[in-house]
C-alpha cells in the first residue's frame, strides 16, 4: 500500500531545536528557477519521501504538520484520524471485545503507537502490500524500554507485520475483532476496491470496521489547489454523498452490519463547516455485537475465542495463508494481582496527590478564593464520578460509585451523601524555619593551613 503521504511546500530555514525538514538523499535538488522553496511529498512525521509528482502548493492548507491557509489543524490531521479511530476501538461498551485488531494499509504504521495502548487487545496485525517498506520499518514494532519498565497488566500483546493485500483472505485473521483502513481505499483501483467488501464483510466478518477517506468537498479550501486529487497516488476522492453510497451498498449486501459516519479536520468559518470534515470516517458495527455491547456484555462472540494467529496457522496448514509474516514481537505481561479495593485506592490516592501538589492549580485556587474567609487552602473536594473518570476506573468490571465510596470509606476517607470526598493536604515543611536552623548551626573555624603557600609535590618515578 502506498505511503499515506501528503504534499507540502517546504521553505528551508535555519535549524532550530528540531532542525530543518528532513529530506532524504534520494530526493533531487530543487530546480534552479524554483528558488529556495520547492515541493516534496511528506510522510506522517513530516519527513520527505520523494518529489511532489503533481507539483504545486496545492496541499499547503492541509499539510499534516503545518498551516491550513487561514487556519491550522491542531492536533495535526493525521493525529486526529488516529485518535478518532483509537477512541472508537476503545469505547467502554466494547473495549474488552477488541482482542484482535488488524490495520490494513498500515504503511509506515504510525498508528501502531496508539494501537498498543489498547489494554484488552491480545494481537495487533499491520498489513500492507509493500513488502520492502515493511522490512524497512520492522524495528518500529519492537518494545521500548518503558514497555519493560511498565509492562502490560491485563494480557500480553503479540504484534505482527504482514505483507499482503486487503482483498486476499488469510485464514490466520479469522475471528478478527476490529479492522481499520485509514486513508487507504482512495489508493485502490476500482477493480480492486470492488473486492474489498467481500473479503472484509463476507469472509473476515469483524465486529467493527473503520474506514477513513478524504472528503473531496473540502478541497476548495486549499489555496492554489491544482487537483485533480490531494495526492498523486489517489485513484479517486469522494464527496460525503459518494462515500455514504459506497457504505450503504455494503450494508445492503451485508445486512448484519450497520454504519455511522463522522469525521475529523473541520474548517473554522461557517462556509467551511458546511463542506464537512477534511477526512470522513465510516464505522461499521456487526449488529449482534452492537446489541451485546448495548446490553453491557463485552464477551467475544466467536466460537474459537482464544485461538491466536500462530495456533490457527498450526491447525489449518491446508487453508489459504497468502500473507508473509515480516516481523513478530511479543510485549511482556505482568499480571496485576491487586484486589479491586486496592486498585481503586491506588488510583484515587494517586489522583489526590497529583491535584493537591500541583503548584499551578494551588495558585489558581488561591486567586479564585481571594477574600473568602472560609477558604481552606489545604482542603480539597472531589466527586466520586470525577474520580471514576479521572482515574479511568470505568474500565474495571462492575465499577460503580457505591463501590468507590465503600473503598474510600474503609480507608478512613469521609464521603457525604452526595458522593463527594474531602481530602486534606499535608503541607510541606516550612522552609524558612529550616533555613533559620541552618543559620544557627556552628560554623567551623577557618584553618590557618588553608592560607599557607601550596607545597610543591614531586612526582615519584615509580608512580603507577
Structure notes:
With 464 residues, the chain is α/β, with parallel strands linked by helices. It has 2 domains: 77-331, Rossmann fold; 340-424, no CATH class. The protein has 15 helices and 16 strands. It has helices at 77-89, 112-115, 131-136, 145-149, 190-193, 196-204, 240-253, 270-273, 287-294, 309-315, 340-356, 359-368, 384-390, 401-410, 431-440, and strands at residues 6-10, 38-42, 48-51, 67-68, 71-72, 100-104, 123-128, 157-163, 178-182, 208-214, 257-264, 279-286, 324-331, 379-383, 414-415, 420-424. The strands form 4 sheets. Strands 11-12-10-9-6-7-8-13 form an 8-stranded mixed beta sheet. A hairpin with a 4-residue loop joins strand 15 and strand 16 (420-424). The longest helix has 17 residues, at 340-356. It is globular, with a radius of gyration of 29 Å. The relative contact order is 0.11. Residues 1-71, 299-304 and 457-464 have low confidence and may be disordered. This is Small RNA 2'-O-methyltransferase. Its EC number is 2.1.1.386.
Keywords:
disordered C terminus, RNA-mediated gene silencing, methyltransferase, 2 domains, alpha/beta, S-adenosyl-L-methionine, 15 helices, three-stranded antiparallel beta sheet, globular, EC 2.1.1.386, Rossmann fold, magnesium, 464 residues
Q: Summed up, what is this model?
A:
The protein is 28% helix and 18% strand.
Amino acid at each position: 500500500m502506498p505511503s499515506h503521504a501528503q504534499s507540502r511546500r517546504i521553505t528551508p530555514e535555519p535549524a532550530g531545536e528540531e532542525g530543518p525538514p528532513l529530506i532524504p538523499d534520494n530526493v533531487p535538488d530543487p530546480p534552479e528557477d524554483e528558488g529556495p522553496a520547492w515541493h516534496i511529498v511528506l510522510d506522517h512525521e513530516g519527513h520527505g519521501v520523494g518529489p511532489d509528482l503533481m507539483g504545486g502548493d496545492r496541499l499547503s492548507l492541509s499539510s499534516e504538520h503545518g498551516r491550513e491557509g487561514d487556519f491550522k489543524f491542531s492536533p495535526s490531521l493525521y493525529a486526529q484520524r488516529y485518535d478518532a479511530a483509537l477512541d472508537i476501538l476503545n469505547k467502554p461498551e466494547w473495549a474488552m471485545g477488541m482482542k484482535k485488531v488488524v490495520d490494513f494499509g498500515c504503511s509506515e504504521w504510525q498508528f501502531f503507537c496508539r494501537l498498543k495502548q489498547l489494554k484488552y487487545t491480545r494481537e495487533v496485525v499491520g498489513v500492507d502490500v509493500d513488502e520492502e517498506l515493511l522490512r524497512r520499518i520492522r524495528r518500529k514494532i519492537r518494545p521500548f524500554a518503558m514497555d519493560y519498565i511498565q509492562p502490560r497488566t491485563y494480557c500480553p500483546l503479540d504484534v505482527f507485520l504482514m505483507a499482503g493485500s486487503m482483498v486476499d483472505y488469510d485464514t490466520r485473521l479469522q475471528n478478527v475483532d476490529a479492522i481499520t483502513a485509514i486513508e487507504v481505499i482512495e489508493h485502490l483501483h476500482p477493480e480492486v476496491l470492488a473486492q474489498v467488501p467481500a473479503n472484509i464483510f463476507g469472509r473476515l466478518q469483524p465486529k467493527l470496521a473503520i474506514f477513513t477517506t478524504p472528503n473531496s468537498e473540502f478541497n476548495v479550501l486549499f489555496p492554489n489547489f491544482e487537483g485533480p486529487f490531494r495526492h498523486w497516488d489517489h485513484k479517486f476522492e469522494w464527496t460525503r454523498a459518494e462515500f455514504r453510497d459506497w457504505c450503504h451498498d455494503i450494508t445492503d449486501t451485508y445486512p448484519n452490519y450497520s454504519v455511522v459516519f463522522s469525521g475529523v479536520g473541520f474548517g473554522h468559518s461557517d462556509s467551511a463547516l458546511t463542506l464537512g470534515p477534511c477526512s470522513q470516517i465510516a464505522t461499521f458495527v456487526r449488529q449482534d455485537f452492537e446489541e451485546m455491547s448495548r446490553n453491557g456484555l463485552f464477551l467475544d462472540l466467536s466460537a474459537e475465542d482464544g485461538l491466536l494467529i500462530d495456533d490457527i496457522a498450526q491447525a489449518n496448514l491446508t487453508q489459504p495463508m497468502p500473507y508473509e509474516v515480516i516481523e513478530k514481537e511479543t510485549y511482556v505481561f505482568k499480571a496485576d494481582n491487586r484486589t479491586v479495593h486496592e486498585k481503586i485506592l491506588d488510583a484515587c490516592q494517586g489522583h489526590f496527590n497529583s491535584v493537591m501538589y500541583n503548584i499551578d492549580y494551588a495558585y489558581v485556587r488561591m486567586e479564585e478564593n481571594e477574600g473568602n474567609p472560609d477558604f481552606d487552602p489545604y482542603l480539597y473536594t472531589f466527586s466520586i464520578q470525577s474520580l471514576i473518570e479521572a482515574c479511568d476506573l470505568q474500565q474495571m468490571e462492575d465499577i460503580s460509585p457505591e463501590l468507590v465510596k465503600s473503598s474510600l470509606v474503609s480507608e478512613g476517607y469521609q464521603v457525604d451523601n452526595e458522593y463527594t470526598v474531602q481530602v486534606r493536604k499535608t503541607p510541606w515543611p516550612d522552609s524558612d524555619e529550616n533555613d533559620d536552623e541552618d543559620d544557627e548551626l556552628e560554623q567551623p573555624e577557618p584553618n590557618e593551613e588553608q592560607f599557607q603557600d601550596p607545597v610543591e609535590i614531586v612526582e615519584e618515578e615509580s608512580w603507577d
